[in-house]
Amino acid sequence: MRIVQVTDSHLHADPAARSRTGIPLKQFSAVIDAIKAQHPDLVIVTGDISQDETATSYTHAVEQLRALSCPWCWLPGNHDRVDLMEAEHPLLEEVDLDGWRMLLLNTQVPGQPHGELGPEKLAAMTKRLKADTRPTLIAMHHPPVEVGASWMDAIGLQDREIFWQALSAFAHVKLIVFGHAHQAFAQAYAIGEGQVGVYGCPATSDQFLPEAKAFAVDDASRPGYRVIELDEGQWHTWVERIER
């Protein structure tokens, strides 16, 4: 099964609105066009769909995503309005991937840039992991690990230590994908006697400079997406980029 991750489109109601390095809707559309050639079975959008929190920004996203020939799902980032997302397309908590499954976690803390799951969501995640031991992919917006950029690490998942403690009992969690960081990232996170693959994804909008102490845009990097191949408990993943 082939899954494609898209993240951090930061769309505006105005289709011609600019970001720091380009026009978000134009770049999002170009990424979606590139994804079509990958023939994915599913596309997952890991948050920050909107920049201006308008209904029209989500309409723009849905118009592009509906042009795909496969199902798609999304989850909210810190910039998103959950009510406006739900008005356009359902917010799922779990997706069946044949031999695999995917859990979609909402890490949003309304009005704050950082993320958190909290006791209730962690308990719900634990319950779902106990109920099904198929190989599991977890998708979320905020990074559950430090990515090496001081300012970004400060606004990642705040309860990540508790998150990893909860996952330590479930060896069938194989990989985690996240957004928010606007950069490619890959880490094998040691947990118990095994490892979990943890992956960040380029944004479709601006890219952030890796390992920066303060906020900085990476002008040299291009928008992109992540491809994930799942097969019998194994996976292979890589990043593709497009021209701006």
From TrEMBL:
Keywords: Hydrolase, Iron, Metal-binding. Residues 1-183 form the Calcineurin-like phosphoesterase domain. Gene3D superfamilies: 3.60.21.10. It comes from the Bacteria. Coiled coil: none annotated. The keyword Hydrolase applies. The keyword Iron applies. Belongs to the cyclic nucleotide phosphodiesterase class-III family. PANTHER family: CYCLIC NUCLEOTIDE PHOSPHODIESTERASE CBUA0032-RELATED, PHOSPHOHYDROLASE. This is Metallophosphoesterase. It comes from Halomonas llamarensis.
